[in-house]
Amino acid sequence: MTLVCTNEAELLDLNDSYCERRRGLRVRQARAVWVYEGGNGRTFGGETEDLSATGLRVVLPADARLRPGKMITVHVGNAASARQMIPAKVVWVDRGQSMEFLIAGVEFLASIAAHLDAA
Q1: Nearest to 87 by CA among 54, 42, 44
Q2: For labelling alongside 104, which of 1, 37, 66, 75 has CA 20 to 30 A away?
Q3: pTM for the full predicted model
């Protein structure tokens, strides 16, 4: 079953921790993801938890030094190349109780998201 939240009424009806406010359709899907931190030149492999036209929820190793507001580039799929990376911003980070991984909410930059919505 795929859980999606498309408007505030559905948020009130669904009592699921994965359900958040978002402008568009969100699909829960596990896919390979690569995150490049421009400041220190590090690349991390991880996995998506969900995808939308405007962003991702990703699971990454605990040593990924992400923080809200940090600018990164991401690639969903295997073997990322620089031409396939999408500029994005980290919106939130949850390290949880486990120090083995972190979960982050990533928003594509507005120009990219607007382009995807228009397609």
Answers
A1: 54
A2: 1
A3: 0.70
Question: What does the radius of gyration of the chain's CA atoms come to, in whole angstroms?
Answer: 14
* Topology given in CATH for the domain delimited by 28-118: Thrombin, subunit H (2.40.10)
Q: Measured between alpha carbons, how far is 53 from 27 in angstroms, rounded to an integer?
A: 10
Helix, strand, coil content of the chain in percent (nearest 5)? 15, 40, 45
User: Looking at this protein, which amino acid is placed at residue 73?
Assistant: T
Q: What average pLDDT is seen over the chain? A: 77
83 vs 10, higher pLDDT? 83
Q: Give, rounded to a whole angstrom, the gap between the first and last alpha carbons of the chain.
A: 26
Q: What are the structure tokens assigned to 112, written together?
A: 């990219």
The domains of the chain are located at: 28-118
- Cβ atoms of residues 102 and 64 within 8 Å: yes
Q: Residue 80 to residues 34, 45, 75, 84, 86: CA-CA distances in angstroms?
A: 7, 10, 6, 6, 10
